[in-house]
Amino acid sequence: MSRHFDAIIIGTGQAGPALAARLAAAGMTVAIIERHKFGGTCVNTGCIPTKTLVASAYAAHAARRGAEYGFAVNGEVRVDMKRVKARKDEVSGGSNKGVEEWLRGLTNCTVIQGHARFQTSHTVVVNDEVLQADKVFINVGGRASVPAMPGIQDVPFLTNSSMMDVDFLPEHLVIVGGSYIGLEFGQMYRRFGSEVTIVEMGSRLIGREDEDISEGVRQILEAEGIQIRLNAKCISFAKRDGRIAVGTECNEGGASEVLGTHVLLAVGRTPNTNDLGLDRAGVATDERGYIVVDDQLQTNVPGIWALGDCNGRGAFTHTSYNDYEIVADNLMNGDHRRVSDRIQTYALYTDPPLGRCGMTDAEIRKSGRAALVAKHPMSRVGRAVEKGETQGFIKISVDAETKHILGAAILGTGGDEVVHVLLDVMYARAPYTVVQRAMHIHPTVAEFLPTVLSNVEPVS
Ligand SMILES: Cc1cc2nc3c(=O)[nH]c(=O)nc-3n(C[C@H](O)[C@H](O)[C@H](O)COP(=O)(O)OP(=O)(O)OC[C@H]3O[C@@H](n4cnc5c(N)ncnc54)[C@H](O)[C@@H]3O)c2cc1C
Is the pTM of this model over 0.90? Predict the structure, then answer.
């Protein structure tokens, strides 16, 4: 016996719940299945808890800088990790509860807890129950990758998930991976009071970014006392005198080791597609396990879609939510929305943050377009000076012929918000001169965008 639904949704990440609500509101019967925590990565082990922790770290850092702003704190600023975690748990737990209550309250929607696996292309088994539907939506997300690095199984290590249980201050946290997740944890734990070393295989941090951005971020982190080991081509692990030795070079030798009390692995993500029965459904994946989808997020099997991180077309909450909008609008409104219509954008939540949209310098060079670029240090942005947060710069590239904005990076206070000014002009397909001639509010970081854009010059 199987239960029939109009739609089955596997996973309650950033696309599934909104899709369930939209389909159910249209009168379709929907089953949504979650094997672990409602809300998925962003809500429980990703964006929401980490940004809550980043806020605690920012407050501690600001308190330590009190003298610069004209106030004194009686005694040393010490962080109570149990209270930091409790605050994080309250914010993250509230979202998790909100998603569950929302789903359980939906008319036409059945919430099932358990691990879902395909039995055939349109039947799914969960808790020994067989569910059947014409439409199946996969929103299973991903998890921290644990590559087979020498010694990794011999030492205890943390991932972004187990970091959520940490309610103590690691004496020396060694973070393997100098990209977005590693850098956010690195700065926050340094500000909580840990010694922090970041070990990165590549020759620079956040290797996908422009070199000046990698360098700017490195300077910001090193100024706070974070140790950075680049070019760690051969990373290995061993227990040593109650600590964990992280080897960073291919030649053996004590000098190339970092001795820490705790290790966090932040070396990439793996899609949760290996235990989903995709072979029985006939759904194709690529060599890294990502589900292959077309521009409208349909898999190779008619009636099965894949949304969010598991399709390899984005790795952010906003890309997953946008996947939901594309699928829902195309299905329900007869729209023709496509993944390729969206413009790359994201933030790195170090302090100051990096807001990014459009192409990197390397992507612009590869596209062969004639570009003009303008760069402006945050030390010459009034609002940043007033706030005492002058690290970083604004960089904007435009097309010399069409005058369209090609890409922007705002590494500086408010960068994650300000970048939207440029992003929306890109969506409007308007020339950069629209922003150049706009009157913005004083004093803001955004008020400098017209000035910056008045100084675009050919790329040297
Ligand atoms: C530390 C960290 C910080 C991040 N910070 C940001 C940020 O600041 N901004 C941002 O945009 N993005 C951030 N991200 C990325 C963001 O969290 C993800 O891109 C986002 O959660 C989208 O995920 P998703 O919708 O693909 O699925 P997920 O949120 O991963 O959810 C998938 C769900 O499916 C469930 N599931 C999996 N397999 C099955 C199965 N077989 N049966 C039933 N259920 C199943 C899982 O339990 C999970 O609940 C961060 C990620 C990490 C790790």
Answer: yes
